[in-house]
Amino acid sequence: MYDLIIAGAGTAGCLAAMTGASLGLKVCLLDAKPLSRIGDKVCGDAVGKHHFDNLGLAYPKNEELAGELKGCKVLSPDRQTSFTIEGLGAKAFMVNRHAFGQRLLKEAMDAGTLVLERTIALEPIFQDGFIRGLRVLGPDGKREMHGRIIVDATGFQGAIRRRLPPKLGIQVQVSQGDLQVAYREIRFLEAPLENQDYGLIFLGSRIAPGGYAWLFPKGKDIVNVGVGVQAREGHPNPKHQLNLFLKEQEFLKASKVLDGRGGIVPTRRPLLCLVAEGLMIVGDAACQVNPIHGGGIGPSMTAGKLAAEAAAEALEKGEASRENLWSYCLRYLRGYGAKQAVLDVFRHFLQEAEDEELNYGMSQHIVEEEDVLKASLYGEVRLNITEKARRFFKARGCLGFLISLRKTTRLMKRAKELYEAFPNPEGYEEWLRAENRLFEEARKL
């Protein structure tokens, strides 16, 4: 009998295992991949420095570290305006994802975690209203594993979450509109980059409808370049869109592909109920990804640590009940979850804005560069709408853009306040109704 059985050895699963084992729990971590391939995942490879500081985690170094970024530059759809986002909250490490994942796995094992490779979680085992284990498929066939708490860290597929009954109150399915379909390539450049200090984000519906294109340096002559599009019905193939994007970048035409793969990212606010009797959900399985840029390593590691700490506290009380595990919901949703909720409101606005509106809005600095960082870090946005801007949008019949932007900033403030007041279980249903009303408004932006 294990205290924690964690399905999925990604960043969330490894941090949950590492933390749980260091707190004295008996932990088993299982993954579908062989040990040597754990950490090999399609990713943008950027992780904010502040996440390591907040978690007390050693910075990546040696083979884990591919480069460091001072921040990023956001380019308007017409490429005429660039916002430079830099400062303490924007600094990031570019990691070699496989090596970084292997380091986290080793630290989990060094803390005392038992790791089962080539083992797939099939379904949860219910007993007396609790989830008491998993049916798994491993090298020796199917079998049952039993534990006091099960952690779903299986990625966006949510292998355990998707098999939960509705009565548990956990969202089982994620809507298509809340997903990004992405394709990225690691490319070797013919000539070194002139500027390796900033990642580049390219807005515009022609290349990336409902999403964006990116180019992140990994040292002087390697880049991570990709396109993500919103997974609406009839969405374009992101690999095709990346090829269109590459043709427009003169310095990339002679580059060589080292690796090319696609993936799906949940770009929305987190699931609202993250626990059930004997169950916790972390990482992409819980939609713990930045809704604007799709970065998930930092929040996933945060969630893994918080979940394991809450699990240890619950077992100290004697039972892994929903109420005893609820502190994980409180800590995550009042903290990073509030930031995600704010940015999810802004995502709805961006996905409905026309390229012409974004071009002019950025050129006139309706939102200042420093406020973009504040929006990302703290959920605060200050508008700078001049009379010149009002005349422009009125002349083009686009006053709705300004009205929608004002409404967006108000909704962002409300979302922040609502999530920072995430309740205990007895107040959850009333809070949930208020949250649903707020995001109904956001979807109509």
Explain what you see.
The chain is of the alpha/beta class and 445 residues long. The protein has 3 domains: 2-45 and 97-174 and 270-334, FAD/NAD(P)-binding domain; 177-266, D-Amino Acid Oxidase, subunit A, domain 2 (D-Amino Acid Oxidase, Chain A, domain 2, 2-Layer Sandwich); 339-443, no CATH class. Helices cover 36% and strands 25% of the residues. The chain has helices spanning 11-22, 49-55, 97-110, 238-247, 297-317, 322-334, 336-352, 355-363, 369-378, 387-395, 399-420, 428-443; strands at 2-7, 27-30, 46-48, 65-69, 71-75, 82-86, 92-95, 114-116, 120-127, 130-138, 141-152, 179-188, 198-202, 212-217, 222-230, 256-266, 275-276, 279-281. Helix 2 packs parallel to helix 5 and helix 7 (336-352) runs antiparallel to helix 11 (399-420). The chain is globular. 49% of the residues are buried.
Write the layout of secondary structure elements.
Elements lengths: L1 E6 L3 H12 L4 E4 L15 E3 H7 L9 E5 L1 E5 L6 E5 L5 E4 L1 H14 L3 E3 L3 E8 L2 E9 L2 E12 L26 E10 L9 E5 L9 E6 L4 E9 L7 H10 L8 E11 L8 E2 L2 E3 L15 H21 L4 H13 L1 H17 L2 H9 L5 H10 L8 H9 L3 H22 L7 H16 L2
Parallel strand pairs: 1-2, 1-11, 2-8, 5-13, 11-18
Antiparallel strand pairs: 3-7, 4-7, 5-6, 9-10, 10-11, 12-15, 12-16, 13-14, 14-15, 17-18
Helix pairs in contact: 1-3, 1-5, 2-5, 5-6, 7-11, 11-12
Order of helices and strands: EHEEHEEEEHEEEEEEEEHEEEHHHHHHHH
User: What is the distance, rounded to the nearest whole angstrom, between the alpha carbons of the first and last residues?
Assistant: 50 Å
Task: Please write the CATH class name of the largest domain.
Answer: Alpha Beta
Strand fraction equals 15-25%
- Structural class assignment: alpha/beta
Count every beta strand, where a strand is a DSSP E run of 2 or more residues.
18
- Percent of residues in helices comes to 25-40%
Number of helices: 12
CATH superfamily of the largest domain: FAD/NAD(P)-binding domain
- Poorly predicted runs: none
